[in-house]
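Saturday, quiet lab. Running sequence design on the structure tokens for the scaffold JK sent over.
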């Protein structure tokens, strides 16, 4: 009877060269393939093993920190094939926004990038955190990240007029200082 046969009895499966999914299903009876496929974790299909510490590691490298699943692989690993349904994308997007930081998505972020202000923030918090970070960052940080584009000459002028203190002000303090200075300027005919 064909249904009583396992997958490895129907097709040749070499654990060293066959696709991971076939290796995972090799001992499954043909009539149980649909159920077994739905029970497989995406992490297993991608070549990861769930360890007792709750983390996914590359199979054969369990416990090695450099082999731990991260970012999108980590997010996807805990889902089973059977979880992929009409709400899967919505659920994944929610997890993406709640679990991943800007650094997780973009990798190493240079200190001269505007993203450096929010590199440790969760993706879902960017909309509220970025304006707050811009408000509270020092002016010198905003210049270094290109958010406040002041030339070296403009910076030198500010330093000659106000000393070095303007660099450590936040943006509100900085503009208050400038507006205050402008209000003391004589009227120009």
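Result came back. Writing it out in full:
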């Amino acid at each position: 009877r064909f249904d009583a046969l396992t997958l490895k009895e129907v097709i040749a499966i070499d654990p060293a060269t066959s696709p991971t999914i076939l290796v995972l299903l090799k001992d499954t009876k043909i009539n149980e393939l649909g159920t077994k496929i739905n029970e497989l974790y995406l992490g297993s299909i991608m070549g990861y093993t769930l360890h007792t510490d709750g983390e996914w590691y590359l199979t054969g490298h369990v416990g090695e920190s450099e082999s731990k699943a991260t970012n999108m692989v980590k997010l996807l690993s805990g889902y089973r094939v059977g979880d992929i349904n009409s709400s899967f994308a919505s659920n994944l997007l929610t997890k993406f926004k709640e679990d991943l930081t800007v650094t997780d998505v973009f990798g190493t972020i240079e200190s001269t990038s505007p993203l450096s202000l929010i590199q440790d923030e969760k993706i879902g918090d960017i909309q509220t955190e970025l304006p707050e970070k811009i408000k509270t960052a020092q002016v010198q940080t905003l210049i270094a990240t290109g958010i406040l584009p002041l030339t070296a000459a403009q910076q030198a002028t500010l330093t000659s007029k106000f000393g070095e203190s303007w660099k450590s002000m936040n943006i509100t303090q900085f503009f208050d200082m400038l507006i205050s200075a402008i209000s003391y300027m004589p009227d120009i005919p």
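Notes for JK: The chain is about 45% helix and 5% strand. The mean pLDDT is 91. Ask whether to fix the surface positions before the next round.
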